[in-house]
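Morning. Coffee machine broken again, so started the prediction first thing and wrote up yesterday's gels while waiting. Chain of 114 residues, entered below exactly as on the submission form.
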Amino acid sequence: MLTKRELELFRLLADSYKAFSDPKRLIIINELRKGQKSVGDLVRILVTPQAVVSRHLAVLRQRGIVDARREGNNVFYSLSDPLICEVCDVVQRIVALRIEKNNKLVEWPTGENL
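Came back before lunch.
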């Protein structure tokens, strides 16, 4: 049986994992791995209204995935820890392997894929 502390840890982990459950947030994380970006930079990259980008950044910030730094009227965001990139890379490799496996399942005897 799990202790209260263990249950709380899993609740916190699940809450953190939710931050990775939106494609726009994953794009933001991927862009920030290249270096810090302003909100305006991310708006242009995502081709998304500033209010939407700001909401995604707020989710990432609340979960400790990104840090914010104000410089004049601009706010610049960066990843809070390089380990975040490693986590994303591992999940990406798992997904790529799953896609590869699924592609082999639909391979015809002639060697052609669907």
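Residues 32 and 78 are 6 Å apart (CA to CA). Going to sketch it on the whiteboard this afternoon.
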